[in-house]
Amino acid sequence: MQCKGFLFDLDGTLVDSLPVVERSWCHWADRHGIDHQDVLNFIHGKQAITSLRHFLAGRTEEEIQSEFTWLEQIEATDTHGIVALPGALELLQHLNEASIPWAIVTSGSIPVAHARHKAAGLPMPEVFVTAERVKRGKPEPDAFLLGAELLGLQPAECVVVEDASAGVLAGLNAGCHVIAVNVPADSPRLGEVDFVLTSLQALSVHKLSDGNVTVSLKM
User: Fold this and answer.
1) Does the annotation mark 16 as catalytic?
2) Across the beta sheet with 177-181, what order do the strands follow?
3) Does 219 have pLDDT greater than 80?
4) What is residue 210's predicted lDDT score, i.e. its pLDDT?
């Protein structure tokens, strides 16, 4: 596959934040008497506000925003156990050294995303797209379209790297190449992605003299 830049999801793709995410949402579920598994089956890859509107259907927007503020505070301050996923740091460092454009495109809010990014010790991207910057979250394509635009690239010149079904759909809907990492096996349209991986360590990335980037799997 060839591209000119990368658009990375954060949680579950570059950083292992699953224990924190699940702790926070289970704590929230307990406040409302909602089954933990029902919540955990829905939230991954989506903006928190989207999940809250789903589970609090019928509540006023003011009430939902109040719940969002409560949840955001917990998620932004609980960083215990957050680490970079295998291969993430090495890949991002390689992209920087090779002057290959890359962005983080996350469904998380600024406080949550920046706290987890910092806790994992990852380099700062040139472009950091968070939930506040788009009206429609994943699986809509808006976030990845904005990420490509801010990198100065066309969507078709970018490869999205995602772990969530909603993110894979967003990347495909944006017209990007997509690499799925540890995505659920029953994810829709998984047959349309370029690579399905279990680890970023499997990727080999090389910049060509014409500025294009080849992405392949290590043998």
Assistant:
1) no
2) 127-129, 102-105, 5-8, 158-162, 177-181, 195-197
3) no
4) 94
Token pair for 63: 């009430």
pLDDT per position as a tens digit, 69-120: 999 999 999 999 999 999 999 999 999 999 999 999 999 999 999 999 999 9
Selected catalytic residue, list 9, 16, 78, 163: 9
Element (H, E) at 205: strand 203-207
Environment class of 169 (CB within 10 Å of its CB; exposed 0-12, middle 13-18, buried 19+): buried
Interatomic CA distance for residues 118 and 112, integer angstroms: 10
What pTM was estimated for this model as a whole? 0.90
Confirm whether 11 is a catalytic residue: yes
Cβ-contact 13, 7 below 8 angstroms: no
Map residue 189 onto helix, strand or coil.
Answer: coil
